[in-house]
């Protein structure tokens, strides 16, 4: 096992455990290469990279970045700024500049070389590159080499057993090399930012929300596969670099002090999204992301707070969708009934809640894998039952495999969500209308999650999740607490299913599988919770957005989508097991952060 040293951060003082970096260059030369390469990378985006517009994005224009030049431009700017801010040992943020600069340079290099290679293979050789394409390849490589030459704290090497054979010595060298690479990309512990004037912090929150809206709008609006891959590389490495620099920790610290302002600002930023679109093409993706994210947030109550592994949660979404479609005036419904919107919502949520109680009451005395198997069975039973209730194999209720079709659009207070409307000079189409409706429902779900998570029942869920036996010994009724979590999660899924039925016009059993190539299904819902961060509000929302957007954009992967999805989850569990957004309430083992001690004290004091 290797342990890091506590050598000082001065590269000028030779200290045991310190090296000149992963690349054998003087630190001053490395920093000049990193900054100069980043600046030249920025300059190259204003030059033509190829002579033909055959490659998507038209990279033939001088003086105006376009297509894949835009993410390279962002990466080059971030690399240059981090390099300048860390010049002379000064840090751009408490996390230290070395690891952040290396990550930014690596992301820029990967995006630039991915573009150059795509141009070469798509157009038929290096001869199709203009000077700008050659410059960005050389500049990004120089910037990466310079960043890798910066000094860092190396782990103290473990002595080699003199009696070890060749295989053991090779394994030892591999472990030492991997520990060195990890140390090169490890940041120092960030210093607390400290409170700033309230108006400054609120302005910072506004800037954060604007950045998030810009990134999401750009990502969802990417028009071809290559551009989306470049966006993923730049966004992933860019946010990782900001995290190593301590900027993410500072942003989290500020938003934690103004939680209500942050939540309101997030919903305002989301509400502005349809106004950034000229048609319903990307608003369609937005409304499906919100449906998926809302259901994932409901599942987070069951999995993230109560610790119940539910593998059939998508069935509750289906129950709500079927219940609402049966009473919404569909011509294929056996009931000649069309209830108003509020009544259909209540029917969908109530039906899912009833099923949640009926399934949870006899099964929630099980734990762990046994409960997971039972919930998996419930999900499959629901799908098979819906497929058989066609009047032949069973009562005529769901129209079998054909489902309930021609579900009419919703009308709320005379406002037809299926028609196009003009708001402040902006044309808002059908999917934008449903986007606003789902945003309102998401706000309700967030409110329920937050209020219940901070309440006595929420702390009881966390206690049962951590150790059910100890919680029961302290007087908590574990069965009742878990049943409440199951019922609340099911009702929230049914709420989203009500809107899904009207958005898609049709409800069929095939929409509610355990696993498939596209969400929502139980596997993707559970992955969204784990990927984003269990027990948090923003985690499932972010995880659901990524898991819906990536398969939708990377259609060229085809049958390999699930393989890529599995590899991504393996890497995530290896390098960030707490998820993209760590839970601040769970202590050092599950995700450290400001505010966790206050929450713990609040729990103990109840």
Structure explained in plain terms:
This protein is mainly α and 606 residues long. 61% of the residues lie in helices and 2% in strands. It has helices spanning 27-44, 69-85, 97-123, 131-148, 166-184, 198-220, 225-244, 247-257, 259-271, 281-305, 314-326, 341-363, 368-388, 430-453, 456-466, 468-473, 478-504, 522-532, 538-553, 561-575, 596-604; strands spanning 3-4, 155-156, 411-412, 415-416, 421-423, 426-428. The strands form three sheets. Strands 1-2 form a two-stranded antiparallel sheet. Strand 3 and strand 4 (415-416) form a beta hairpin. The model is unreliable at 1-17, 88-96 and 586-606 (pLDDT under 50).
Low-confidence stretches: 1-17, 88-96, 586-606
Order of helices and strands: EHHHHEHHHHHHHHHEEEEHHHHHHHH
Count helical runs.
21
User: Total strand count, please?
Assistant: 6
Shape: globular
Radius of gyration: 27 Å
Average pLDDT score:
81
Spatial strand order of the main sheet: 1-2
Helix proportion: 55-70%
Keywords:
21 helices; two-stranded antiparallel ribbon; disordered C terminus; 606 residues; 6 strands; two-stranded antiparallel sheet; mainly alpha
Summarize the structure.
61% of the residues lie in helices and 2% in strands. It is mostly helical and 606 residues long.
